[in-house]
């Protein structure tokens, strides 16, 4: 009789919680700041994906019309809407291609580092015998700053986007592992985990169906906020000359190329810097709103 009552209660709770879980995206879109942020971020991603179709010029082709200002300035030209750089290359075309590479580095780093870090953190929470070993490995990785790690990898592998991506992945793993471990320890203390063990559910099923699924939303919130940080770190490393090899377009490198001409051609450095700012702000607003929507402790 008690089993029937408990099953009815579980069904009632599941039925009442289902609409709330299914309507999280409605609450997300009701936030004006989140709606603006996701619209801007989506447009930037679409422009980066379709860069070969949208770019008005070859991003690597030089011309004699060097350091032209944007079209709204006195010496501007409609042919080059955002002007040209010191080599006479179209800034708008290089922005489109540079945004593609910057977003690729950020998304790949947060995805690979997030998956590896989350797996290690949840593994430490599920198997307590592995917890000291995984956490000590996490402490070692946390002691390596991303910029210094990027310097070391560039010195060992050479300049390019690959060592920067590896540095960002390695720096993401320990942070995500600690977050996932903390969430996982809270889940492992719940009654349904104990009930699952008493019913004889095997560890792989208990790990994948009960632990991982209950931690996904919190991990995604962390990774959405981490994405903006990775974009800034990648741009900083490229600004220092450690990113993609010239003439490959990348936002941080484009900003660095314009610093020597900042006094009489500020648009060369300002335009890519503003785009980095917009990407990071949009990602942070989306992450904050996801946290407000998905975190059960913040729900009203």
TrEMBL record:
Residues 99-287 form the ABC transmembrane type-1 domain. It is a multi-pass membrane protein. It is found in: Cell membrane. Keywords: Cell membrane, Membrane, Peptide transport, Protein transport, Transmembrane, Transmembrane helix, Transport. Belongs to the binding-protein-dependent transport system permease family. This is ABC-type dipeptide/oligopeptide/nickel transport system permease subunit. PROSITE patterns: ABC_TM1. SUPFAM superfamilies: MetI-like (SSF161098). PANTHER family: D,D-DIPEPTIDE TRANSPORT SYSTEM PERMEASE PROTEIN DDPC-RELATED, OLIGOPEPTIDE TRANSPORT SYSTEM PERMEASE PROTEIN APPC. It comes from the Bacteria. InterPro entries: BP-dependent_transpt_permease, MetI-like, MetI-like_sf, OppC_N. The lineage of its organism: Bacteria, Pseudomonadati, Pseudomonadota, Alphaproteobacteria, Hyphomicrobiales. CDD domains: TM_PBP2. The chain crosses the membrane at residues 33-55, 101-127, 133-156, 211-241, 261-287.
């Amino acid at each position: 009789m008690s089993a029937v009552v408990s099953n009815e209660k579980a069904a009632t709770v599941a039925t009442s919680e289902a609409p709330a879980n299914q309507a999280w995206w409605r609450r997300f879109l009701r936030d004006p700041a989140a709606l603006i942020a996701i619209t801007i971020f989506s447009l930037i991603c679409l422009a980066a994906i379709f860069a070969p179709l949208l770019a008005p010029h070859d991003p690597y082709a030089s011309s004699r019309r060097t350091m032209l200002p944007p079209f709204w300035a006195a010496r501007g030209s409609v042919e080059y809407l955002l002007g040209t750089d010191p080599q006479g290359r179209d800034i708008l075309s290089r922005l489109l291609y540079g945004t593609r590479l910057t977003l690729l580095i950020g998304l790949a780093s947060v995805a690979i580092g997030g998956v590896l870090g989350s797996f290690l953190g949840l593994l430490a929470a599920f198997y307590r015998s592995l917890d000291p070993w995984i956490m000590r490995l996490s402490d070692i990785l946390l002691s390596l700053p991303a910029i210094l790690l990027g310097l070391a990898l560039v010195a060992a592998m050479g300049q390019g986007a690959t060592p920067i991506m590896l540095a960002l992945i390695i720096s993401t793993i320990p942070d995500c592992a600690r977050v996932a471990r903390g969430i996982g320890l809270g889940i492992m203390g719940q009654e349904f985990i104990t009930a699952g063990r008493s019913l004889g559910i095997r560890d792989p099923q208990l790990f994948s169906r009960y632990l991982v699924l209950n931690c996904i939303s919190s991990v995604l919130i962390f990774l959405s906020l981490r994405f903006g940080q990775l974009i800034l770190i990648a741009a900083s490393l490229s600004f220092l000359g450690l990113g993609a090899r010239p003439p490959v377009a990348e936002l941080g490198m484009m900003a660095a190329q314009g610093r020597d001409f900042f006094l009489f051609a500020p648009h060369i450095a300002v335009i890519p810097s503003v785009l980095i700012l917009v990407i990071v702000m949009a990602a942070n607003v989306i992450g904050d709103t996801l946290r407000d929507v998905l975190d059960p402790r913040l729900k009203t």
